[in-house]
Design brief:
The chain has 227 residues and is mainly alpha-helical. It folds into two domains: 113 residues, no CATH class; 113 residues, Leucine-rich Repeat Variant (Alpha Horseshoe). The protein has 14 helices and no strands. Helix 3 packs across helix 5 and helix 13 runs antiparallel to helix 14.
Length: 227
């Protein structure tokens, strides 16, 4: 057992473990029961120690929190883009739930400085047979390609991933709802066209209606396009 795994067990909260099992029902990995802020602190405190970092990311993991720590560490470690991407590509097949997926994406701030390269990788990931690699692609678009980095291709890529997988469709709806905040003129056309699958269409509208960043008038207008 690695030093970092020992740290995770030293911060185990059995009651929180039961909560986590309900929150993350899609993971097959055993859950220790460690709160996210603690895992983030462990990652931040240890990524600067090369021996510990490389030993951990090259080790075989067993627990959910180990994989979460692995994903977060890739974001906190000061590596160049190509090395980060190399480690990430090896890590992606092991992501089996929404929480590790989304937390890893949000921590990869190095993506901001390499957007053209990231976008090309997204085009590959979104065609993966692994649903969580597909979700990783969609959440990457959501985090780094809305607002000033937006293009019509962002919506087209996300739309192309629609399928029967709940966590993929939820990610698409989440992206569309945020795009309605940041890139409304382009995104509302997609809602108006009613070309999205029923679940994605209605969930996108629901999430937009729940947003504090969308006006009441716009919310009422969006509701008229529920299927």
């Amino acid at each position: 057992m690695s030093i970092l795994t020992d740290l995770l067990f030293n911060n185990q909260d059995v009651k929180y473990r039961e909560f986590s099992k309900k929150l993350i029902p899609d993971t097959k990995y055993p859950i220790i029961g460690v709160r996210a802020p603690i895992i983030k602190n462990i990652a931040k405190s240890n990524v600067s120690r090369d021996e510990i970092f490389y030993e951990f990311i090259n080790d075989k993991h067993l627990y959910y929190e180990e994989y979460l720590l692995h994903g977060l560490s890739l974001g906190y470690k000061k590596l160049d883009f190509d090395e980060t991407l190399s480690h990430l590509v090896r890590f992606l097949p092991y992501i089996d739930n929404w929480a590790i997926c989304d937390s890893t994406v949000s921590g990869l701030k190095i993506f901001k400085k390499n957007l053209p390269k990231v976008f090309e990788k997204v085009k590959v990931w979104i065609k993966s047979d692994n649903p969580y690699t597909v979700r990783f692609a969609i959440v990457t678009l959501l985090n780094y390609f809305l607002g000033e980095n937006f293009s019509e291709e962002v919506l087209n890529l996300a739309f192309s991933a629609c399928c029967e997988h709940y966590y993929i469709n939820m990610a698409i709806a989440w992206l569309i709802s945020v795009a309605l905040v940041k890139n409304y003129p382009n995104t509302v056309k997609l809602i108006e066209s009613k070309t999205l699958p029923k679940f994605v269409q209605n969930k996108s509208i629901q999430k937009a209606v729940e947003s504090f960043r969308i006006s009441t008038d716009v919310k009422e207008y969006l509701k008229t396009f529920k299927v």
